[in-house]
Amino acid sequence: MKFRFLGTGTSNGVPVIGCDCEVCGSSDARDKRYRTAAMLETEHSRVLIDCGPDIRMQLIPLPFRKIDAVLLTHGHYDHVGGIDDLRPYCSFGDMDIYANDVTVETVRHNFPYCFAENLYPGVPKLNLHTIRKHVAMRIGDIDIMPIEVMHDRLPILGYRFGTMAYITDMKTIAQDEIAYLEGVETLVINALRWEKPHHSHLIIPEAIDFARKIGAKRTYLTHLTHKIGLHDKANARLPKGFMFAYDGMELEV
Ligand SMILES: [Zn+2]
Ligand SMILES: [Zn+2]
Question: Which ligand does the CA of 225 lie closest to?
Fold first, then answer.
C-alpha cells in the first residue's frame, strides 16, 4: 500500500497568517504544511483520512479517480472543513464517509445541506456511516481497525491498517487500546511542538514516549506547528527511527 501525507500542519497550518518567524518565511517546501490529512491506496482501492479546509489544494495534484471511503478522526474544522469539496468525486458514485457517533453528529450539524433528506433529484450524495472502535472493516482490499484515543476529553478515532497505525490529535489513550496497536511497525502520531504541554495534543517528547511504548520501528510526526523549527534542523534533533512528516511524503506500508 502507498501512504501519502497530504497535510502535516496543525489547525492553523504553516505558515501561520501574520507570523514572520523563520519557519513561516522559509522557502523550503517542507516547511509549508496544509492541515492534516492523508491518502492510503492500493492498486484497487483508495481511502482518504480526514478532509480539512485545504483538501481541494491537496487533491488537485493527484490523479482524479474514485475515493472509496473517507475515514474521519473527529469533527473539528481542521479535519472536516473541506467535506463539501469532495463533490466532484461523486461522479464516480456516492461518497461514503465513516466516523464515530460524535463526529457523525457534528458533521451532520455543521453541513446540514449536504445531508438533507430531500436533496435535489440527481444530486450526488455523501453518505455518513457511524463506525465503532474495535469493529474491523474492509474497504476494497484495505483492512481497517478503528481504535479510540482521547483529544482532551473528546473520544476520537485512530486507524490501523496492517502494521501501520495513523493517529492524530491524541493527548491520551486508554490502557486497553494498547493491545490493538501490538505489532505496529510504522506509526504516524501527532506532535505539536518541543515543549510546553498542551491540553489536547501530545508534544514531541510525549509522542516519542508513546511510540516507544507501542514498539514502533518507524515513527512519523504530524499535526506540527511552526514551533518545531525548520524541517531539516528539526529532523536532526529527533532520535533514530523518528522523522517529521512533510506534505507530499510517501511511504510504502
Ligand atoms: Zn486537529
Ligand atoms: Zn511562524
Answer: 2
36 C-alpha to ligand 2 centroid (Å): 17
**203 CA distance to ligand 1 middle (Å):** 13
Phi and psi torsions of 106, nearest 5°: -60, -45
In the reported structure, the alpha carbon of residue 14 is separated from the centroid of ligand 2 by a whole-number distance in angstroms of: 7
For ligand 2, the distance from its centroid to the CA atom of residue 183, given in whole angstroms, is: 37
For residue 146, CA distances in Å to 1, 26, 65, 113, 159 come to 18, 36, 25, 28, 5
Q: What is the pTM for the complete model shown?
A: 0.96
Tell me the pLDDT tens digit for each residue of 141-194.
999 999 999 999 999 999 999 999 999 999 999 999 999 999 999 999 999 999
Query: Exposed, middle or buried, 45 (CB in 10 Å: 0-12/13-18/19+)?
Result: middle
**Residue 54: what residue type?**
D
CA of 115 to the centre of ligand 2 (A): 37
* Residue-wise pLDDT tens digits, 215-248: 999 999 999 999 999 999 999 999 999 999 999 9
